[in-house]
Specification:
three-stranded antiparallel beta sheet, 9 helices, 15% strand, alpha/beta, Rossmann fold, binds adenosine monophosphate, five-stranded parallel beta sheet
Length: 210
């Protein structure tokens, strides 16, 4: 399975990606997670990305595409992958198409999580993230339900940055939905309801493309 997840910030892509990657035994490749891990470790890539990530802007295509290309070359991504957060604009989608053609391969599907914008703002502003494992959880928890790690609010989950991320999504990322619909790859599922219900909806929809 070679899968791309698309959806606005807060649609639950990261949470669903973890379940889907386990279900299909494919690596979960999240550009946001890779950037945050590099920022935490203070690598040159992390230092370069930080200003953009903290402001809710996209990191340059050159940096992001090179990072994903290298990740897709790793052994575990040979038999399939789940891309979460890339491509995030039409130019990145074109790079992915060229990359697949180079490998004489193609995507299995692009899964779009759709969600009303009022729900997005409510979810993001109450979301906390684990410093250890990076999983997100609802406000109200005092420690990470997965590993007991300390929770914090991501710089880019603060209200002023959320507005910018949503605008960036509408301007730059939403056009890839049309791109993939035209390519006949798009599958849309509603991202409302219980986490397990949404996972099942996604698996049912994907069973038609396998
Ligand atoms: P996410 O965790 O997917 O919400 O990503 C967090 C941040 O990482 C984004 O707001 C961007 O600053 C950066 N980022 C993640 N993926 C990309 C991408 N494909 N292109 C450019 N920047 C990205």
């Amino acid at each position: 399975m070679r899968l791309v997840l698309v959806g606005p910030p807060g649609a639950g892509k990261g949470t669903q990606a973890a379940f889907l990657s386990a279900h299909y035994s494919i690596p979960h490749i999240s550009t946001g997670d890779i950037f945050r891990a590099n920022m935490k470790a203070g690598t040159p890539l992390g230092l370069e990305a930080k200003a953009f990530v903290d402001r809710g802007e996209l990191v340059s295509d050159a940096i992001t595409n090179a990072m994903v290309r290298a990740r897709l070359e790793e052994e575990d991504a040979r038999a399939g992958f789940l891309l979460d957060g890339w491509p995030r604009n039409v130019s990145q989608a074109e790079v992915l198409r060229a990359l697949m053609a180079e490998k004489m391969s193609s995507l299995s599907a692009v899964l779009e999580f759709s969600i009303p914008s009022e729900e997005i703002i409510a979810r993001l502003s109450s979301r906390l993230t684990c410093r250890q494992c990076g999983k997100s959880t609802d406000a109200g928890s005092t420690s990470c339900p997965a590993d007991g790690g300390e929770l914090y609010q991501r710089e880019d989950d603060k209200p002023e940055v959320i507005a910018r991320r949503l605008a960036v999504y509408e301007e730059q990322t939403a056009p890839i939905i049309h791109f993939y619909r035209t390519e006949g790859l798009l599958i849309t599922v509603t991202a409302l309801g219980d986490v397990s219900e949404i996972t099942q909806r996604a698996i049912d929809a994907l069973s038609r493309v396998q």
